[in-house]
Amino acid sequence: MIGRIITSDACVAEGAAWLAAAEPRFARALGAVGPLPLRLRGDGFAALLDAIIGQQVSTQSARAIWARLDAAGLTDEEAVLTATEEGLRACGLSRQKIRYAQALAAARIDYAGLPLLTDAELSQTLTAVPGIGTWTAEIYAMFSLGRADVFAHGDLALQEAARRLFDMDDRPTETQMRQMAAAWSPWRSVAARILWAYYRVSTAKEGIR
Questions:
Q1: Could you tell me if 2 and 164 are in contact, meaning their C-beta atoms sit under 8 angstroms apart?
Q2: What are the pLDDT digits (tens) for 197-207?
Q3: Quick one: which of 3, 17, 33, 183 has the most CB atoms within 10 Å?
């Protein structure tokens, strides 16, 4: 089962209302953060390349690297596959991310077929590519495919936001986060949006772009 697909702000608002009714702390968070962003973005090669670029760097750095790649015409599959290492490095990519970007281009993923896959099948397909881990697959499912019941359990910003909102002594582990998020189904993607927004207002930092 693929489940509900988020297509509009109304979908996000519906999920937020459900979560606020189910968990009072989400209602408190929503009072602090205001309307949630839709966060839907394009799909396909460029979306996954963007996710790879964003791994383990600040949102500001990721934006700058993407802008340089875009200006150089290096955001489509063929261009990345045939680009030189020097050209990609000049845009700010590390040697490891150059390898990941070119592995993604060489994988020739059937992007048109991805929306038809279950969450498990999608994750299996994407994580078979070097440089794409579970987090990247989850972000793609949430924001490129609009899936309403996906959560990035290993995301540090989500974990820290959960610690703050739920008054926990320590940041929850990925396993603990998975157990907590189970109660937020079928709107776990909206719960993630709430927590990222709460992270932003409680730390004055962006957890995701």
A1: no
A2: 999 999 988 87
A3: 33
